[in-house]
Amino acid sequence: MVRDALLHWHGSRWHVHMLTVMPDHVHLLATPLQAAPGQWHSLTTIIHSVKGWTAHRLNQLRGRRGRLWQSERFDRVVVSQAEFEEKSDYILSNATRAGLCEDALSYDGFWCEAMAQVFETKPGG
Fold first, then answer.
1. What does pTM read for this prediction?
2. Average pLDDT across the chain, whole number
């Protein structure tokens, strides 16, 4: 559910390159898209939307109320191809390092644009 919520704005407010949803946090590599010439969609607004919707829905499913997500985020601006690759490798291997799976590519909480493009080109995919 969290993965799908993060992908909801993919292509309209941000371009999601890769993400992995862990049991207690999320890693996301995304680029905000232009809202108007010279103006980009706000990461704060997009993330607030995702956190709000998922908190409401998860609390509803669990029969709970109250805060689900921590208020802080740890944003980083990626400034080079080498840093992009470093962050990608970290996101890809996060679930494996945590012992949640043996194969990161098969982890249900993982998504990357390259995999999505491959599966979208297959018949029936």
1. 0.83
2. 88
pLDDT in tens, 44-59: 899 999 999 999 998 8
Is residue 18 classed as helix, strand or coil in its secondary structure? strand
CA distance 117 to 98: 27
Measured in whole angstroms, the distance separating CA 96 from the mean position of its chain's CA atoms is 17
Find all residues with CB under 8 Å of 36, minimum gap 6, and list them.
none
Would you identify the CATH topology of the domain 2-121?
Answer: Alpha-Beta Plaits (3.30.70)
And the tokens for 19?
Answer: 């993400």
Task: Please list, in sequence order, all residues whose beta carbon lies within 8 angstroms of the beta carbon of residue 110, skipping any fewer than 6 positions away.
Answer: 18, 19, 20, 21, 91, 92, 95, 104
Question: In this structure, what token pair is assigned to residue 71?
Answer: 């208020």
Structure tokens at 23: 């049991």
Q: Distance between CA 61 and CA 75 in Å, rounded?
A: 29
The tokens of 61 are what? 């499913």
What confidence tier does 100 reach under pLDDT thresholds 50, 70, 90?
very high
CB count within 10 Å of CB 3 equals 17
Terminal alpha carbon distance of the chain: 20
Segments making up each domain of the chain, as ranges: 2-121
